Amino acid sequence: MKGHEMRLTFSLIALLTAAALAPQFAAAAGRLNVLFIAVDDMRPQLGCYGDPLACTPSMDKLASGGLLFNRAYCQQALCSPSRISLLSGRYPSTTRIFQIGPPLRSTMPDVVTLPQHFKDNGYFTRSLGKVYHVGIDDPASWSVPSWQSRKPRYGPEGMKMVAARKAEMKRKGEKESTKGPNRSFYAGPAFEAVDCGDQDLLDGDTAREAVGVIKELAGKPDQPFFLAVGFSNPHVPWVSPKKYWELYDRTKIRLPDNQFTPKNAPVFAARTGQDFRWYGNVPKGEMSDDFKIDCIHGYLAAISYIDAQVGRLLAALDDAGLGKNTIVILWGDHGYYMGEHSWWGSKHNNYEGATRAPLILRVPGQKVAGQKTDSLTEFVDIAPTLAELCRLPKSDGFEGRSFAALLSDPRAKLEETALSFYPMGGYMGNAMRTDRYRYVEWYDKSGKLAARELYDHQSDPKENVNVADDPANQDTIEKLSKQLRGLGRIVKPGK
């Protein structure tokens, strides 16, 4: 199907879906609210995604009443660029933000973001916790200034390690760094089980604040709201109350069977960030299997800690009588590697494990509940979807396509591709996920095509072998290259 024909087809689907869904959601009193839950570095390692160990009853319950997306992809596997893309509804090829640091309006000063679109249409918009990024916000998106918890990420032992590093730096006359390995924060451990209550740490305190805000909003039934709540776990350091560690039997934790980089992949592409190695208790050389298991244990405990906080938010909605007219959407900002391809506690690349992320949507009165969809979905699709479900005027700036039709028919196929981008070693990677393949084109500083990657998910779902140079795949390469270029979003270094 040609590009213009595909767009016309999707537009027709959207119109038909809107007509079908309108009476379905009209039963909700007034306009629908939105509870928008962001979880940092959480890959789809949840019970509802089929993980046999993950203890995630709250998110599982949310999925049982909503729709779970099996193949949802972020547009860049790095916190700030991913969030900026999602919240603006624009691809990184449009935002031009590919690193942590620049705020959205440094490149798009007049952009109207997803929450701003809601605010401009009469919604009260509020941000609590890590929604855009720590230290990088967008005041125009919110009705009132964003709120951040002052509680620590570490427990007492972790804070002691940080304090000791600060004292050492002061003694040596070293300047504190705001980022990078010289920042004293990284003297703390990569994981810590803390004998404390949920609210003694940052994420529990964020949930506490959010519950209070939900109670306040319940007292204003005529004021629709868009409430964004962001959690920092399970981003490393994996610090959570001890009770969440005790949910897991470490003897049942298994290490991945592909602890090697993708074979035949370009050297610059087959790597990830090194920030995990900066933490105080992480070996600088080879990690033992016991230490690796401790890492996975800590990661699972951190997910369960967040799951409990999600449960508090959902319970607060129900207690306040808001569950019947509030959309709940939960997403992780990108994937995460926990030993696969030898990468630990990181993302920072264009592979499946980095770009695939959890996405769960629950809409009051939805026709289909408790099902999963295998339809390819992009995070830029979230903005137009929420706008449509809440019957807001269409924003021409949103570049994704609404997936509201999947609420009625999870088997529908709305997208042919999902795009992701990543700059590595002076090269820019443009990745395209199709139903069967992951195809990547890498461009050098001169703008020339420097390398390709091809992974066949039918025979290699873990992306262990790059088969782009196999002569048997040349017809496939040509077809996918034409398809990628036809999307009109190729990014080259410095372009």
What would you say the CATH architecture is?
3-Layer(aba) Sandwich
Helix content: 25-40%
Q: How are the strands of the biggest sheet laid out side by side?
A: 4-6-1-8-12-2-13
Going by CATH, what is the homologous superfamily? Alkaline Phosphatase, subunit A
Oligomer: single chain
> How far apart lie the N and C ends?
29 Å
Domain count: 1
Shape: globular
- Quickly give the structural class: alpha/beta
Largest sheet: 7 strands, mixed
What integer is the average pLDDT? 93
Low confidence ranges = 1-29
Short description:
This protein is α/β, with parallel strands linked by helices. It has helices spanning 3-25, 57-64, 79-88, 92-95, 114-120, 156-172, 202-218, 242-245, 289-319, 352-355, 382-389, 474-486, and strands at residues 33-39, 67-69, 72-73, 124-129, 191-194, 225-231, 238-241, 326-332, 337-338, 344-346, 356-357, 359-362, 371-373, 377-378, 418-424, 427-433, 437-443, 449-456.
